[in-house]
Amino acid sequence: MAEVPSPDALAAEFDCLMARAGVTVPPQRRAAALAAYADLRGQIELLHGRYGPEAEPSNVFRLGDR
């Protein structure tokens, strides 16, 4: 498992990503958004590399290809 960044590093990463996306997070919602980002980052880390595309679950589908 990858090393968990410090709270300051995680906040800096979050701020950088929000700025790149052009998203302004209101100050009163920043703490909640940062907590959600940290949780999402942890979930992605857990899922990353668990299985290859040949083992995709049956409920995965593509839009546009008919």
Structural summary, described in words:
The chain has 66 residues and is mainly alpha-helical. Helix content is 55%, strand content 0%.
Average pLDDT number? 82
Number of strands: 0
Unreliable segments of 5+ consecutive residues: none
Instruction: Please write the string of helix (H) and strand (E) elements.
Output: HH
**SS field, number of helical segments:** 2
Major sheet size, sense and barrel closure:
none
Structural class computed from helices and strand pairing: mainly alpha
N-C termini distance: 38 Å
* Rg calc: 16 Å
Shape: extended
Strand content: under 5%
Tell me roughly what share of residues is in helical segments.
40-55%
Keywords:
single chain; 66 residues; mainly alpha; 2 helices
Record the SSE blueprint.
Layout: H1 7-21, H2 27-47
In short:
This protein is mostly helical and 66 residues long. The chain is built from 2 helices and no strands.
